[in-house]
Amino acid sequence: MYNQLIELIDKHVSLSDVERKVCVQYFEPFQIPKNSILEEEGKVPKYLYFVVSGFLRLFHYKENGDEVTTHINCPPGFITSYSNFSSNKISDENLESITACELLRITKTDLDLLIKQSDAFRDFSIWVFQQSLSYNENRSRELATLTAEKRYLKLIENYPEILYHVPMQYIASFLGMNPKSLSRIRKQVIK
């Protein structure tokens, strides 16, 4: 279960054998069934999650009660409400499993200890949060500048497995459209 995490870290920083063992000590294995809330709005996110397998989404509610999916995670990778987790502030987002998931999780306190103990983990942690910022900036830009069809095409080009594991209503919300629009776009693309 830890191999994917260690491999990802090793792609970006060099870990010693001691650092690998410390990583295993701080990241806790966690499994969750599909359609389960891991983190609730109105609370400070407790964990940073590394997704070994399965799909998760971040979402919030509009004033009218409609759900807005802001992020869908494809394994392997990290997910949490990053700004709230790192600043220890209450989040307005929910983190939900879309499928059954195998995860590794770490608390903010343990992450801070790990970063203090290891320059490699500090550097990797900085890289993870930079990736999150970059992802959110690109996503905002794409929502503002790309047509709905281009957003869909880009999603299936970069993350085709989403189509097989994530319900269409979540994909539509994530792409900033309603399910009927997504259905129409999918029919046009398939032709």
From TrEMBL:
Instruction: Quote the InterPro entries the UniProt record gives.
Output: cNMP-bd_dom (IPR000595), cNMP-bd_dom_sf (IPR018490), RmlC-like_jellyroll (IPR014710)
- Name the coiled-coil region(s): none
What range(s) does the Cyclic nucleotide-binding domain occupy?
31-117
> Pfam families given for it?
cNMP_binding
Q: Write down the superkingdom of origin.
A: Bacteria
CDD domains (UniProt xref): CAP_ED (cd00038)
Q: What is this protein called?
A: Crp/Fnr family transcriptional regulator
Q: Which organism is it from?
A: Myroides odoratus (Flavobacterium odoratum)
